[in-house]
Amino acid sequence: MAFQAIFNVVIVEPEIPHNTGNLIRLCANVRARLHLVEPLGFKLDNPGLRRASLDYSDLTDVRVHKSIDTIFEAVPIERIYGAMTTGTVLYTTPKYQLGDTIVFGSESIGLPDHVVDKVNVGNRLRIPMMPANRSLNLSNAVAIILYEM
Predict the structure, then answer these.
(1) Tens of pLDDT along 78-136?
(2) Rounded Cα gap, residues 94 and 18, in angstroms
(3) Which of 19, 34, 117, 118 lies most in the core, judged by the most C-beta atoms within 10 Å?
């Protein structure tokens, strides 16, 4: 049976293999497709990635893209959400639909400005945090929003 994703998770320039391994497991368990946008901060055969993803790699669909543009060309813009600390919309607000896409940035810098600019203002999501805190762990943030979706 072909993999039928219900959501798309996009990580722009992921840096930490363990986080990506955790995301492979998460995506397998909610039937989401994981898209990784280059450059990657690790090789896909990294032992840390393999260890964190356990044996879930064959249970999800992981795709690597040279550019974020391929995502924005393939999905209707109104169905693409961006997660960012500066987002103006609480992540529980949208009425998500099957096939929606959520875009996250790298662990160290989040979404680059050129990607933020592509996301509709009404689709720029945030997860509430204590004031003056910087951000959550990437795989934790993805889990929060993906389970809400």
Answers:
(1) 999 999 999 999 999 999 999 999 999 999 999 999 999 999 999 999 999 998 887 88
(2) 29
(3) 19
What pairs with residue 124 in β-bridges? Answer: 82
Spatial separation of the C-alpha atoms in residues 78 and 123, rounded to whole Å: 8
What tokens does 27 get? 């995506």
Partner residues linked to 9 by β-bridges: 34, 102
The structure tokens listed for 71 are: 């995502």
Q: Which two three-digit tokens encode residue 11?
A: 């990580």
Q: What is the pTM of this model?
A: 0.92
